[in-house]
Amino acid sequence: MPSSPQVFKTPLTELFNIKHPVMLAGMNVAAGPRLAAAVTNAGGIGVIGGLGQTPKNLQRSIDEIKEHLEDKNAPFGVDLLIPQVGGKARKTNHVQKALDQGVDIICAQGGEGGGHTGDTPFSVLIPACIDICKNAKSPLNGKPVLVVAAGGIADGRGLAASLAYGAAGVWVGTRFVASVEAGAPKMHKELIVSSGYDDFAKTTIYTGRPLQVRKTDYIVDWEENRRDEIKKLTAEGKIPHEVELEKRPEISLPGRAWLMGRVAGAIHDIKPAKEIVDEMITTAAQCIRQTNSYLVPQAKL
């Protein structure tokens, strides 16, 4: 099925030669080859999560994406982590540090986002990142470094807001987990569409860093009754959940981390990725047209 007509032309759509400024977040498991291909086929750009894959498995995933692409030359991405050896834990300006290293795109995720995230809200972080990047040039093409907005984006209103702030596009995770093509378990999808706005927790028990997930009884027990234990274990360089699993393997499922952003409270259905992209573009265009109608016409001289 062909992608919908192009509505927005941004530096992101021009850079990747895509129709829509929508990127699939490269989530481990959930963002598999089928979903990545579906987002690319819909006119955005699909990205698979490469973390933890062996070179052979990653090649299989890439080959599978290509099999599902309607246009075999269409772009897609692979999300990888680059380890830093000998780094120190200290407070840094992440954006400026990335610019100093030489990047082409900054993906800025507000604190509403799922998975590893900070505390700065989307409405504060995105404009701040855009201000920092406005004079930076991409080493790839010499053009301005692009900012892609993430964190709490589930529909076209989030896309419209991002473009209004000055972002070149959006990086979307949780909304695509609740898609037909997502590789996430059925339970993960169902937990998203059944979430309320207060059903989330940010915890360090799974990785030692703040991770935003669906709140469960297991997490509540840790956060309300075992805070001292969390501090002690993490100070020793141990992951609380891994320590608990060694003692109690039976808590593997009830103790599982279901990553999702707070925007899950606004997601109520599981549907094809193309419908998600199309709705996002249509609604964003409507929002921007509506906003433009608020402008008072100025006399032409």
Automatic annotation (TrEMBL):
Keyword Oxidoreductase: yes
Record flagged with keyword Flavoprotein: yes
Highest rank taxon of the organism: Eukaryota
Keywords (A to Z) from UniProt: Dioxygenase, Flavoprotein, FMN, Oxidoreductase
GO MF entries: dioxygenase activity; nitronate monooxygenase activity
Record-linked Pfam families: NMO
Name recorded for this polypeptide: 2-nitropropane dioxygenase
Native organism: Sanghuangporus baumii
Source species taxonomy: Eukaryota, Fungi, Dikarya, Basidiomycota, Agaricomycotina
